[in-house]
Every structure is written in C-alpha cells, then in structure tokens.
Amino acid sequence: MDSDYYGIKISVIPLRDRWRWQVVLVGISVTSEVAYDTQEQALQEGQRWISAETAFRALNNYLSELSGKGAIHRREYCDLLQSLVQITQHQ
Fold it and tell me: 84 with 60: CB under 8 angstroms?
C-alpha cells in the first residue's frame, strides 16, 4: 500500500505483524523507527512526519533569514527555534 502526499510517495513496510512508513526523497529514504498496528496508521504517521518536517524547515529558514538581516536578535532566534522544536516535536 502506497500513498501520494503532495507529490511525495509514502510506502508501508511490513515488520513481523506490524508496519512502518517510509518516505523516499531525492537520493535518500527515511523510515519510521516506530512500528504501527495497521498500514493506515503507518501512512497517517508518514503524512504527519512530512507535515511537521516541512513546517520545521520552512519556519527555521524564515527565522534564519530574519536573524541574518538583523530583524531579530540571536537570542530571539534561539528561543523561537526552541519553541518550534517543542511544537513540532522535531527530532
């Protein structure tokens, strides 16, 4: 079972009687460390990972740009990034 999530393919990989999601990007693949009870759960978590990773990277880039332009101080950048990590549960 595969899913197309905004043009990104999410696959499920069997692991004994459970499932993991796998996202294949240009040149790399990312596979969940957690195994899920159903294929549907694995696909949903793969979609959640893509959403969280996309949001984290976009906001991190924006905050870096603001910091680089002097619009926010380095300490503000660090505090905002830490909040972002907590909100997105980024690893």
Answer: yes
Nearest alpha-carbon partner for 13 in 44, 35, 47: 35
Q: How confident is the model at residue 90 (pLDDT cuts 50, 70, 90)?
A: low
Other CB atoms within 10 A of residue 86 CB: 9
Q: In what order do the strands lie in the sheet with 28-31?
A: 2-5, 8-15, 18-25, 28-31
- Cα(13)–Cα(23) distance, integer angstroms: 11
Q: How would you classify the pairing of strands 2-5 and 28-31?
A: unpaired
| Dist CA 15 CA 34 (whole Å) | 10
| Confidence at 41, pLDDT banded by 50, 70, 90 | very high
